[in-house]
Structure formats: C-alpha cells, structure tokens
Amino acid sequence: MDLQLKDKVVLVTASSKGLGKATALEFAKEGATVLISSRNEATLAQTVDEIKQLTNNQQVYAKTCDMSSVEDINALFAWVTAEFGGADILINNTGGPTAGGFKDLEDSDWMAAFEKNLLSYIRTTRAVLPHMEATNFGRIINISSSSTKEVIDGLILSNTFRSGMVGLTKSLAREYAKNNILVNTIGPGRIATDRVAELDQIAAAKQSVSVEDIVKRSESLIPIGRYGQPEEFAKVVLFLASPANTYMTGQSLIIDGGMLKAL
C-alpha cells in the first residue's frame, strides 16, 4: 500500500526515545519529512543521526521542546512554520504523568499532569490547525494509554487526563472533518518502553517481588503472551496518520495484544 507520505511534513513530539522515536522512524522509512522534538538536545541529535542511518532519509530534523512549557511549544511551531511551512501531520506524544494513588498526590502533581498530558496537546493542536485548514488536509494522532478504556490502579493522573484526551479527540474530529482533518487517539498497552520498565520496577518494589515476576504476571494477562514492541505500535499510528486513511476519525484505539477485557 502506498501511504502517500513522501511529500508530507510530520511532527512527532517527545520523540527522542520510546514510542515517539519508533513512530518517527516509521515515517522516515516512508520518505516523509520528519520533525522530532524532546527536552534533551544531545539525545535528539543522536536520534536524528540514528534515523538517518537506518532509513537513508536525510529529511529528518529536530528542535528541543519541553511539552509542559507554552514558550517551548510556541517556539517549536514558529520553527516548523518558518522552516517547513507547517506540519501536515501531528503526532502528539508526551511522557507519562507521575504514578500514584489519590492520597499520594498534591495539587502541584495534578496541575503538572494537566499541563503536560492534556493542555500540551491542546496547545500543539491549536498551533497546527491553521496550516491544515489552509491546505484542506491534516492528520492528528493523540498518543494516550490503555487507561482510556480500563483504568490502571496506581495511575490516577493518567486515568484522568488521558480520558480527557479522548473527549478532545472526538470533539476535534467532528469539528474539523469538513476540512479533511482526521483526528484519532491511540493508546499503548504493555509495550516494551522505558516508561513500562519504570512502572514494572515501581510495582515490583511495592509488592516486594522481582521485576521479572511482574513481567511474567503481565505477560500472562496478554493473549498474545508478550509485551509489544514499539515498532508494532508505530505501524498502526503510521496508517491512521497517513493520507491512505480517508475515513477513520474520532476513534480511540488500544494496541495491547488483546490484554483489555473492556469492550
């Protein structure tokens, strides 16, 4: 299938590692112009070099951006507009919020999670929409979590703000479908990333068991029997964010190997 990405500019936020990096790599393989961002300039530079080497696509560029900073987001989009004319495809991604239950968290934790994990997506979407409206084309993917379908104990911040992201996605999809701007949410289940490894370590410490035991328990709940790989998640993002997707919008999908029991 031709995903029609060779003339498209794709921005993937928080993409120096993990799901963001895997997604940027898949877009680069398809010949898109790929823009990546994260807070660490040195890691970003390494990621750009790695993607170029793996794909032989030299149209890969980077700019630092802290997704919790409105100033950084404004600077990122000023750069995207000045250098590339705007982004045709936006992959919204951030690191996960602080783990914990209700009694573990203060107002500052809630405000930080809101700004990083929901308001950042609102800000980036606001910034990218004028170009998409002008060209009558756009694809926005909001990377979320399986907590949008089934809450995860000990991750109340994710349960709260990721669900808000689904409402945002559905509203945007309905409002901008007339402009050929399709918006979807895609959440990972147990994908082998640093974030999941961190959560496994936290769970192991709380339960006084080994990380290996936590992984085995988790894998036993996944019908496919293993954690997913970042590239498996990224390939789904790739299709839904491409011009080849012409009719799917406003959806909330989970890539989890069949783990969730919720309908």
Automatic annotation (TrEMBL):
<dbReference type="GO" id="GO:0016491">
    <property type="term" value="F:oxidoreductase activity"/>
</dbReference>
<dbReference type="GO" id="GO:0008206">
    <property type="term" value="P:bile acid metabolic process"/>
</dbReference>
<keyword id="KW-0560">Oxidoreductase</keyword>
<dbReference type="Pfam" id="PF13561">
    <property type="entry name" value="adh_short_C2"/>
</dbReference>
<protein>
    <submittedName>
        <fullName>SDR family oxidoreductase</fullName>
    </submittedName>
</protein>
<dbReference type="InterPro" id="IPR002347">
    <property type="entry name" value="SDR_fam"/>
</dbReference>
<dbReference type="InterPro" id="IPR036291">
    <property type="entry name" value="NAD(P)-bd_dom_sf"/>
</dbReference>
<comment type="similarity">
    <text>Belongs to the short-chain dehydrogenases/reductases (SDR) family.</text>
</comment>
<dbReference type="InterPro" id="IPR050259">
    <property type="entry name" value="SDR"/>
</dbReference>
